[in-house]
Amino acid sequence: MEFxxxxxxxxxxxxxxxxxxxxxxxxxxxxxxxxxxxxxxTKYPYAEIKNIDLGSAQKQNDVEAIITAExxxxxxxxxxxxxxxxxxxxxxxxxxxxxxVVAAKTxxxxxxxxxxxxxxxxxxxxxxxxLEARKEGSQLIHEENESNQVIHHPLRxxxxxxxxxESDVIIKREYDxxxxxxxxxxxxxxxxxPYQENSTITIYGSIQNPFATQEAVASVLKEKLNxxxxxQNHMGGSFGGKDEVVSSMAARAxxxxxxxxxPVRLVNTxxxxxxxxxxxxxxxxxxxxxxxxxxxLKAMQIEAxxxxxxxxxxxxxxxxxxxxxxxxxxxxENVKTDTYGFYTNNIYTGAMRGYGSPQVIFAQESLMxxxxxxxxxxPVQLRLKNIYHNNSITASGxxxxxxxxxxxEVLTKAVEKSDFIEKYNRYKKEQxxxxxxxxxxxxxxxxxxxGAEAIDAAGIILSLKKDGSVNLYSGLAENGQGLKTVYCQxxxxxLGLDIDRINFMEVxxxxxxxxxxxxxxxxxxIGGNAVKKAANNLANRIKKFIxxxxxxxxxxxxxxxxxxxxxxxIEIMSIAEMSSKAAMEGVYLTSYGWYVSPEISWDExxxxxxxxxxxxxxCQVAEVEVDIKTGEISVLKMTAAHDVGRAINPANVxxxxxxxxxxxxxxxxxxxxxxxxxxxxxxxxxxxxxxxxKDMPDIDPIIVENPDPDGPFGAKSIGEPTLExxxxxxANAVANAxxxxxxxxxxxxxxxxxxxxxSKGGE
Amino acid sequence: MQKVKVSLTVNRKKxxxxxxxxxxLLDTLRDRLHLFxxxxxxxxxxxxxxxxxxxxxxxxxCMVYTFQIDGSQVLTVEGLEIDxxxxxxxxxxxxxxxxxxxxxxxxxxxxxxxxxxxxPNPDKEAIKTAxxxxxxxxxxYQQIIEAIEASTKKDGSE
Amino acid sequence: xxxxxxxKPQNLKEALAVLKEKGMDIKILAGGTDLLxxxxxxxxxxxxxxxxxxxxxxxxxxxxxxxxxxLIIGALCTHTQISESELIKRNFPILIRAAKTIGSTQIRxxxxxxxxxxxxxxxxxxxxxxxxxxxxxxxxxxxxxxELPLQDFITGPYKTDRKEDEIMTKIKIPKITSDYQSxxxxxxxxxxxxxxxxxxxxxxxxxxxxFNDIRVVFGSATPTAIRFLKIEKRLKQAHINELDLExxxxxxxxxxxxxxxxxxxxxxxxxxxxxxLIRALQEIIREVQ
Lengths: 763, 158, 289
Ligand SMILES: Cc1cc2nc3c(=O)[nH]c(=O)nc-3n(C[C@H](O)[C@H](O)[C@H](O)COP(=O)(O)OP(=O)(O)OC[C@H]3O[C@@H](n4cnc5c(N)ncnc54)[C@H](O)[C@@H]3O)c2cc1C
Ligand code: FES
Ligand code: FES
What we know:
Chain A is α+β, with helices and mostly antiparallel strands. In chain C, helix 10 (229-235) runs antiparallel to helix 11 (245-260) and helix 11 (245-260) crosses helix 12. Chain C has a five-stranded antiparallel β-sheet with strand order 4-5-10-6-7. In chain C, strands 11, 12, 13, 14 and 15 form a five-stranded antiparallel β-sheet that branches. A three-stranded parallel β-sheet of chain C has the order 1-3-2, with helices on one face.
């Protein structure tokens, strides 16, 4: 198919502001009389708050208001389970809980006042281990509950007992992964402005999901949704991270703004950000797998326990995605998995790019290599024997028949391009010197969009102006990933307009259609379908207008290059001219597109159903060099093959692959948020290390395209798949290099040399 | 705290300021001069989002007190553009899709600019060294390197 | 929150006069890459101070001088300056190797050698090679000037022998003959902007294929960077082709434990210090063969 605007590496529509420094992010917003807010955090992870004395803080110069839990109309919020405190009420439940927030004329005054607040605590003995929290009789984090369990997702298919009986080889392994910080470079920032126009409160800021924040703030303020307005600024990255934490900040700022009747700005430092923002869940996983001598998988039994930290946040959904992906993209007749989340007094955990998949993929794909080793097969062979094809039945009983199942294609392409087999065998042999090379791979299938988590729908408004330019209103939001550009390309394709004629408006809950959250790599797929609908509606209206007046039939009319063509390609007029004529005649030139995803299903008791309406497939190969004398690892090369359905903007797809690969590399060898009895030990980028440019391997992106019947122009997802595979591939490469299997992330210096993690004063 | 008098040339414009002793160059640029292209990501010299060119050298503006640099020349991302014309490096960042969320972009541009001023034809390793102190969580750096490499050829010997 | 007044003396004389008067309340500020971090973090290490005295633009303290017997490096020389100095490259390439591993380009543009030493971090990347080069430091006060070996100046982790009224003005390094070789090793958790997990400087001459005046200094392995005298003694006069590498490595680890005691990190560091020393020796031997 020939396209004019999609399937092309168009320049980003938001790039000019960004390279000139004009783009305004949350912390750049300034309003007259704006106050600066500072949060006082709890001193202990788990403590009773006996008394809060604001006396001397309140008397400070320039201090205008201080709030505590008492000032919060409704102190608990949450998308799934409402148990997150805006400010700690009777007890602090984790080290990032806020106690009070000060608003003052200057940031300094606010900072000084925070230091003067006198809080009396009674320190309590907390629970800091998810397995401890699971034990019967364990201290309850939320007293209203009967246990610390947030969720349990079972999945039952076939008969595992029988499956293991039929297996020739059975192996059991345990894996674990750490807390991970999203590490967007822009710390959280919000400004709350009271009584602007008709809204009680307007919040500007670095907000990943304006509608989720709107609901949280409205519920905290006990205000109507239509009185709470959220305007998204440019976002300095999010990766799932600027949701609940920002909602909580927005609510705090809103209360202060209403109290003082002045705009209130609440911007985190990096330390505050790391301390109070939720993380990727640490998992402890037990895997048991059985196979025949010739490498057919017979049974798999999995138990995965996630640490939810102090709040439920998105744990029920994150762990649900793990259930679907836990067995990997392999046909197994007999499966039993149990995925749990438990409350602890650790930092709470929520969405981060991958959303429950990187943990299980690390385990699953490490396990496949361990099994291959046991069976004396090469890792590619073993996988090829068991992977999904068209019409395969997944662990949850879904038949993959709606789209091209391209696992074999991505696997083969990555393996060939990286020269995997030759290198794998060569590196397996004894290597001279201190630096050992290794190569490893991992594959995955990933359900696109929300799946059976929630209703999956999105809307777009297109408004054609008299001069033939278009405003596009979307409820899904640009987080830096390039969404604005992709939507403009899709609308441009259908309307025959260049993308510079289309203006993607900032997401503003006042006008943008509520489309749920920009998560789950769903924006191109779900929002893109809505763009398509809206653009088709508008194009049809244009065609109808022309047909009725210029003796044309709608079917003959083509919109291209800003011009309207009729029968035999005759040029009728420009879209601009038509727009102005139509406007004069009072023709309605705004269109709406609303898309609801195809039906899906899920049975919570058995874990059976059709959890997602389509999937993407990926394979990454890592080549590493391990210095066995120091434990240092350098990742030399990553080959990443991803089926994206169709690449609406290939340069953006590559950008996602490069970025995701690097994030996966960080997960593999360096990143770990360290906690000790609930305290966070690394609260800034000096100790929480993320990859620098010098850590970058040579990255070879392979874009595979099998257009999906349910995707707009065939497009599916790319954001998350790129990140979920890296750590597993690296772990396998390290094992290939050193003959040592490391089952705990990150694979750092100590693990290579000592075989386990070491930590100061901890565990 | 007693204020300190400082004169600075920022983006070719001269300013006479009275600053607090603990006012960082980052604060002066953002809060006084409203040059919001200078970003704060960590406050401790680790992320590079606050990078500006101070007397010809890339520095973290969060690591400098303004009172230390009386008489200095400062260039921020806002100063790259001259009379509405973008710097070739900015154009190259646009061309090579070197920007995602854009939060690291101003700092990246300034680190790269300082490098190219000193060495118009750097090799890849020199480019990496110039931006090793600029963290980017979105792009994986690849397209940023491509953008800088491309503008070396344009600026260089040809 | 830390509050202070700014002092900005115009020259060294003025700075020393101010220090004489209120030294106990003054923090000296050079490139600021350690100090601003500590101030931002409200670090306990800062102690009390009322004034921050900026010396970063004092003239004359940022020069590299070539003396007959010594090379003299001004305390305000930045890591970038050191990395680019032809004089240093010719005389002490190990310093360049070390300086290039410090922080990032931005940090090297501001951070100074004087700051690196005076901050006294056990992981400071210049202290290790400077001790191995038998460097000494020159401190000036209003009426006095003194010189002492760097090894003696560093008295503990983040502790030095500097008196309240002193400024470090220079670092003095005795020249070595061309039959000296050196090696710098640094173990990092990532490939750039990384504090040394362990660093190592080895400086030695080789006479008749035997190590002679060998100096082995580890950083970040002991409370402060120091010479490993026992292993030096064992290596002195050892033939470069007859080294029992395994037992040298083993002994190095033991020496570290003797100095430091068992710590949480010992299981890692004990083998790795030995491995690093072997690597450094091999590098040096390769150079001479
Ligand atoms: C992101 C980052 C990365 C870093 N990476 C490294 C690294 O890899 N390796 C490494 O070794 N260091 C590293 N550092 C630490 C730091 O950059 C160096 O130690 C630097 O050399 C300090 O010099 P400065 O001039 O900035 O010191 P300042 O911060 O100005 O001063 C440091 C201390 O020395 C005192 N002082 C400074 N100069 C004098 C003087 N002339 N006389 C007396 N006292 C003085 C000050 O009072 C203060 O106590 C890093 C720092 C950062 C922020
Ligand atoms: S804010 Fe200055 S380096 Fe991060
Ligand atoms: S583009 Fe987002 S941090 Fe670099």
